[in-house]
Write a structure and sequence with these properties.
The protein is of the alpha+beta class. The chain is 31% helix and 17% strand. Strands 5-6-7 form a 3-stranded antiparallel sheet, with no helix packed on it. Strand 3, helix 3 and strand 4 form a beta-alpha-beta unit.
Length: 270
């Protein structure tokens, strides 16, 4: 059922932002009563359309992006690992596996833990395999069965290194483990760091609200008789923000003079 409050709120501003610099790369106004994660398809298409030489490994979002199809879409079509938090109740869900199809692993959990079928103990994840994207264009899917995570049994090395195809559960069997119990602590730490850095990008939306006055109090959004007007205002503000940040960086590197004309140094909120 559509939420009336979301309908009257109007839209979400959804942007892909560079985690290092805070620069907005692509953005879209998305209906507030629609699935927010579905915007990924348009955003990623535009991202690689406008930035064809982009080199990226991961895309980070909040819990609203924790959807299996979204993790699959990002990884298979663009080679991007979707980093989105899972709820505790999701991480503790046990998924039993068929003995014939998986003779070495009896089950896996929602955080990526796997259970040795022979010894009944949690296995330790120690590897990841993915197909090459050589010859594939952005948006073209790689074969799903080629994405795998591998484990070893701490009780007996003779159990080998069984693997689980990530297509069993693209969110649970993530490249970046959801907990230390899975194994590969360095990758888990990187997940936590990426999720923490995502909060930095929230300053972008605060700047639009406070510096450019493109929002009202609370969760209310700027509205006009014609919605494209709002989209144009937001786009101009984001492009202006990027231009000022780029100019500041070049000044710091000595590429431009630091004595800007008065009309270009009016205290734009960075």
């Amino acid at each position: 059922m559509t939420s009336p409050s979301k309908f009257w709120r109007g839209y979400y501003l959804i942007a892909i932002v560079d985690l290092t610099t805070g620069l907005p790369l692509v953005w879209v106004l998305w209906p507030a009563n629609a699935d927010e994660a579905k915007a990924l398809k348009l955003l990623l298409h535009n991202l690689y359309e406008y930035w064809p030489d982009l080199s990226a490994d991961a895309i980070v979002g909040d819990g609203a992006w924790n959807e299996r199809w979204a993790a699959e879409w990002c990884l298979r079509n663009f080679g991007l690992h979707l980093v989105a938090p899972r709820q505790d109740t999701q991480r503790d869900v046990k998924h039993d596996l068929d003995r014939l199809a998986f003779p070495s692993v009896s089950a896996y959990y929602g955080d990526g833990r796997a259970i040795c079928r022979k010894h009944g103990v949690p296995m330790i994840r120690d590897g990841y395999g993915s197909p090459s994207r050589a010859g594939l264009t952005p948006g073209e899917p790689a074969p799903s069965r080629a994405f795998r995570v591998r484990y070893h049994c701490p009780s007996d090395p003779s159990c080998g290194r069984p693997g689980l195809p990530m297509e069993l559960h693209w969110s649970a069997l993530s490249y970046y483990p959801h907990s230390l119990a899975v194994g590969e602590p360095a990758l888990h730490a990187e997940r936590l760091a990426l999720q923490a850095q995502r909060n930095y990008c929230e300053t972008l939306f605060s700047a639009l609200k406070l510096g450019n006055k493109l929002a009202l109090s609370g969760a209310a959004r700027t509205r006009t008789a014609k919605e494209p007007t709002v989209e144009a205002l937001i786009s101009l503000a984001l492009i202006q923000r990027s231009a000022f940040m780029l100019a500041d960086l070049r000044i710091r590197r000595g590429m431009f003079r630091d004595d800007l004309p008065a009309d270009l140094s009016l205290g734009f909120p960075l």
